[in-house]
Amino acid sequence: MSLFFVMSLLFGLAFGQTASLCAPSEYTIHVEKRECAYCLAINTTICAGFCMTRDSNGKKLLLKSALSQNVCTYKEMLYQTALIPGCPHHTIPYYSYPVAVSCKCGKCNTDYSDCVHEKVRTNYCTKPQKLCNM
């Protein structure tokens, strides 16, 4: 192997995480409550993008630490609260949601992230829609 190829490989392994395309991305959440008259479309930011992972096919040959499967997750986030319009007085009309300030590639933390993507749930409204720009 040439010296250039080996140096390129080492550079890619060492700095691959910093070149990952994981960043805050615009996203619209649709929120509705059964008791309320409207569905609220909230524009926010989530963490999305590509993170370098390692192939786990050689798991018998590698250390457990080398088998990391990183995801694009929150580095910093804050919560905002929106008011769902058209709710009766006996219903709590507020919905709190996370806003990504910065993102990182790392382990998925189930305390604040959904680590499994399911196609069953869809992000749409069944009631008349109101837009909320926060």
UniProtKB/TrEMBL annotation:
Q: Which GO terms describe its molecular function?
A: hormone activity
GO process annotations (BP): G protein-coupled receptor signaling pathway
InterPro entries registered for this protein in UniProt: Cystine-knot_cytokine, Glyco_hormone_CN, Gonadotropin_bsu, Gonadotropin_bsu_CS
Q: Which residues form a coiled coil?
A: none
Glycoprotein hormone subunit beta domain boundaries: 21-125
Broad class of where this protein is predominantly found: secreted
Answer yes or no on keyword Transmembrane helix: no
Cited Pfam families: Cys_knot (PF00007)
Looking at the UniProt record for this protein, which Gene Ontology cellular component terms does it annotate, in alphabetical order? cytoplasm; extracellular space
PROSITE patterns tied to this protein: GLYCO_HORMONE_BETA_1, GLYCO_HORMONE_BETA_2
Location in the cell: Secreted
Query: Which keywords does the record carry?
Result: Disulfide bond, Glycoprotein, Hormone, Secreted, Signal
What residue range is the signal peptide?
1-16
Family listed: Belongs to the glycoprotein hormones subunit beta family.
UniProt xrefs under PANTHER family: GLYCOPROTEIN HORMONE BETA CHAIN, THYROTROPIN SUBUNIT BETA
How is the quaternary structure described? Heterodimer of a common alpha chain and a unique beta chain which confers biological specificity to thyrotropin, lutropin, follitropin and gonadotropin.
Q: What protein is this chain from?
A: Thyrotropin subunit beta
Q: Which organism is it from?
A: Haliaeetus albicilla (White-tailed sea-eagle)
